[in-house]
Design a protein that fits this description.
By secondary structure, the chain is of the alpha+beta class. It contains three helices and six strands; from the N terminus they run βααβββββα.
């Protein structure tokens, strides 16, 4: 039986110190650039605070991460994911609009391509 990767979902409001500083670190932007993306509340109890929420996924337990359909009956396509890796960061407004973010599947495909490139380099060095 295959051990599948397990994920957890995390989030932080951008109007908190942690949420804003973590968003700046992850996206490589200044607080002013993030403010320009999301804006501020103009009325209500949160008047003057940043809008939006930062969200991300984290692998809780490593294992096989299946991506897409099976290819030509040769088995599942995917890769082994390590535990305690964060990915899929994004900023969402309260109405559900994704302002800035990464696609989980797209990141996984890039990670898989990187592993395949490393394997190809190792094979060429060994030959």
């Amino acid at each position: 039986m295959t051990a599948r990767v397990r994920f957890s979902f995390h989030s932080a409001y951008l109007n908190t110190d942690f949420g804003l500083s973590y968003a700046c670190r992850v996206f490589g932007k200044t607080p002013e650039e993030i403010e320009a993306l999301v804006g501020r509340f103009v009325r209500g109890k949160r008047k003057g605070q940043l809008r939006g929420q930062l969200h991300w996924h984290k692998t809780v337990k490593g294992g096989w991460w299946k991506i897409g359909q099976y290819d030509d009956g040769t088995g599942g396509s995917g890769f082994v994911a390590k535990p305690n890796v964060t990915f899929g960061h994004g900023i969402t407004l309260y109405d559900g609009t994704v302002v800035f973010g990464h696609d989980k599947c797209l990141e996984a495909r890039h990670y898989l391509e990187e592993i395949e490139l490393r394997a190809a380099k190792t094979e060429t060095v060994a030959a």
